[in-house]
Amino acid sequence: AIYHQAIYHELIYHQAIYHQAIYHQAIYHQAIYHQAIYHQAIYHQAIYHQAIYHQAIYYRTIYHQAIYHRAIYHQAIYHLAIYHQAIYHHAIYHQLSSTKLSITKLSITKLSITKLSISKLSINMLSN
What we know:
Helix content is 98%, strand content 0%. The chain is mostly helical. 0% of the residues are buried. The model has no long low-confidence stretch (mean pLDDT 84).
């Protein structure tokens, strides 16, 4: 009976060691599982930060593109203003040229009147 009781206690002892081993193995696997979840979380956080970074680069690119297009727009307005100024100066030049032409026409007419007067004077002199 004592022998059987000793064997029984030894079986209980080995069973306890076996259950303790299973318990430690379960804790180890749970630790590995939590570490895997932690690393997956870090990975997803990295992907999230990378996405935010790329979105920031995208918006910065759009912003610089908008500034570039605004610069082109202002440059176009500037060139249009220069073009209109050129048209205005051209118009003033033609107006001055027309005025100069009118003054020249008037001088030619005056010269013709003078010639006519000289001719009349000549005719008068010849008549006398």
